[in-house]
Specification:
CATH superfamily of the largest domain: Thiolase/Chalcone synthase
CATH topology of the largest domain: Peroxisomal Thiolase, Chain A, domain 1
Strand order of the largest sheet: 1-7-6-4-5
Number of strands: 13
Order of helices and strands: EEHHEHEHEHEHEEEEHEHHHEE
CATH class of the largest domain: Alpha Beta
Bound molecules: coenzyme A
Largest sheet: 5 strands, mixed
Length: about 325
């Protein structure tokens, strides 16, 4: 039997600086009321210059390792999801590897926007199942404050910075169904122009700012995410009622609520952090998972469904027995 990927530890890092809607409204033509009504967001964290994706990813990874009671020497590989890497290369995962003092194994980044963490989890799970690694750090780390267009009030109020991480450990012969039960990842490149960043180091004349057609993204998000959840349930012969916790991508309270309603899930089974963190892209799912883990809501043995969607379009799910 192939090993299961156990979520042995969960970690997170948020920049010190908190920016409320009212503070944003001093420089952006917006109001706290508009932002809260349309998105649920009350505040976000913005990174200081030294708080890069590698810096925050390292901090989140350290807390995940500590939570797992693991050492850097237990890490066989690091997969880091980010759209805001420190450098084009080396991969941000390798900056984290060096900072942690990990001296073996592999490391690479995954660019799958807001679905990056679910993508990374899926790849790590496949590698553990294939016997290629026994301990893998999966990290989502983002500094979207550096790619926002401050002249576009329809997007710049929606995002925040932060990092989350899990340490996956191969579990063999435990006799239970603990660990990642399934992952499903999807992409539709033909929808690449509804949510994108208009440049990168390969295109020096483009500023590299986030562009979004909000209404279209909203429409696709609700239907794709509901499909992803149904796909995960069907693959495991489960019903929505079997799920203890839904940990969705934290983009918008209205998307989360619409999806919960579609699935008939009560809000007390959905972890929501978008009010405090805004949309932290690849970091949003592990940040939410970390919050519900450390405040004691999510417990060992419970069934947790993670899902996310992002620019690409990319989307997916992971079903986990904690
Ligand atoms: N403050 C005040 N007014 C704003 C504003 C802001 N920050 N941003 C936009 N507006 C205005 C618009 O100018 C527009 O004004 P008008 O009617 O006078 O032209 C009005 O609000 C409605 O704009 P619209 O863009 O149609 O709003 P919306 O109801 O679609 O809400 C989003 C905008 C972005 C909140 C919504 O589309 C959304 O949540 N989309 C999904 C976004 C998302 O989650 N993306 C990430 C997925 S990974």
């Amino acid at each position: 039997m192939s090993p299961r990927s156990i979520l042995a530890g969960i970690g997170a890092y948020l920049p010190e600086r908190v920016v409320t809607n009212d503070e944003l409204a001093r420089t952006v033509d917006t109001t706290d009321a508009w932002i809260q009504e349309r998105t649920g967001i009350q505040q976000r964290h913005f990174a200081a210059p030294h708080e890069t994706a590698a810096f925050m990813g390292t901090a989140a990874a350290r807390t995940a390792l500590a939570d797992a009671g693991a050492q850097p020497s237990d890490v066989d590989g690091i997969i880091l999801a980010t759209s805001t890497p420190d450098q084009a290369f080396p991969a941000t995962a390798l900056r984290v590897q060096a900072a942690l003092g990990v001296t073996k194994g592999f490391g690479f980044d995954i660019a799958a926007a807001c679905a990056g963490f679910v993508y990374a989890l899926s790849v790590a799970d496949s590698m553990i199942k294939a016997g290629q690694a026994k301990g893998v750090l999966v990290i989502g780390s983002e500094v979207y404050s550096r790619i926002l267009n401050w002249a576009d009030r329809g997007t710049c109020v929606l995002f925040g910075d932060g990092a989350g991480a899990v340490f996956l450990r191969a579990g063999e012969g435990t006799g239970t169904d603990q660990g990642i039960l399934s992952t499903h990842i999807h992409a539709q490149g033909t929808l690449g122009d509804i949510l994108y960043v208009d440049g990168a180091v390969g295109q020096p004349d483009k500023p590299g700012h986030l562009v979004m057609h909000g209404r279209e993204v909203f429409r696709h998000a609700v239907s794709r995410l509901a499909e992803a959840v149904e796909e995960a349930l069907a693959a495991n012969n489960l019903k929505a009622a079997d799920i203890d916790w839904l940990v969705p991508h934290q983009a918008n309270r209205r998307i989360i609520d619409a999806m919960g309603r579609k699935l008939g899930l009560s809000t007390d089974r959905v972890v929501i952090t978008v009010e405090q963190h805004a949309n932290t892209s690849a970091a949003s799912v592990p940040l939410a998972l970390h919050q519900a883990w450390t405040d004691g809501r999510i417990k060992r043995g419970e069934l947790v469904l993670l899902e996310a969607l992002g620019g690409g379009l990319v989307w997916g799910s992971a079903l986990v027995r904690m």
